[in-house]
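Chapter summary example.
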Amino acid sequence: MDKGGPALWAIFVVSLAMWAMILERYWYLYCAYPRQLAAIKREWQHYKRRPAKVAKRLRGRLLEQLSLSADASLGGIRSASKVLPLLGLLGTVFGMIDTFDVIAVFGNGNARGLAGGISEALLTTMAGLVTALSGLYFSSDLHERIRTLLDLAADELE
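The structure predicted for these 158 residues follows.
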């Protein structure tokens, strides 16, 4: 972490928050969602005996409520996935500034000094991109799982 500079710490914090949201969404899908769906089905049993127009609106409200709770953290995961490469780029800028400082003081003759700044630039770029890719993958996976579950819930509430 010392070689990555302050941008690597920012990448670490944002990726930690992103992974907390990812794990929370999987927990929700496997533990909380089935209970919430069962409660909505019980509520629907009372509503479906009403006139067709009223029942249709109430069904839509129930499905919207389920959708809102299922999509709760997906926006945060997507935002973190978009911010992480930018933080990697910020680390690249910091590393290049360090490299140019070494060149300004010592010239091109200090290879060890140049390597430190270049190393910081490459390390933060890689960290930002790798963590962003993992966030994009799991965001897409969660989105597809949620859409499938919501479609099944819509079919069950007919």
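To summarize the output: The mean pLDDT is 88.
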